Amino acid sequence: MMSRFFTDAATFMPSLMLIVFLAFFCGVIAWLYNPRNKDKFEEYGRIPFKEEPYGGEK
């Protein structure tokens, strides 16, 4: 009886993990394109082009 459980779980788990990964990926994409985060990420994208003194002091 236990061997049947593990066999069923072994065939079901890859599909479940794919769905979990896809949901996580879509969640990250939705979070990144959230309008509240847009300004923050645009500012982070400009960091390499800022002219600041060595050490970042202003």
How would you explain this protein's 3D organization?
Helix content is 72%, strand content 0%. The longest helix has 31 residues, at 2-32. With 58 residues, it is mainly alpha-helical. It starts with a helix and ends in a 13-residue tail after the last helix. The chain has helices at residues 2-32, 35-45.
What's the gyration radius in Å?
A: 22 Å
Average pLDDT for all residues: 80
Distance between the termini: 69 Å
Number of strands: 0
Listing every helix as H and every strand as E from the N terminus to the C terminus, the arrangement reads HH
Helix coverage percent: over 70%
Derived from helix and strand composition plus strand pairing, the structural class reads mainly alpha
Tally of helical runs: 2
Query: Approximately how much beta-strand content do the residues carry?
Result: under 5%
- Which regions contain 5 or more consecutive residues with pLDDT less than 50? none
> The biggest beta sheet, please?
none
- Bulk shape: elongated
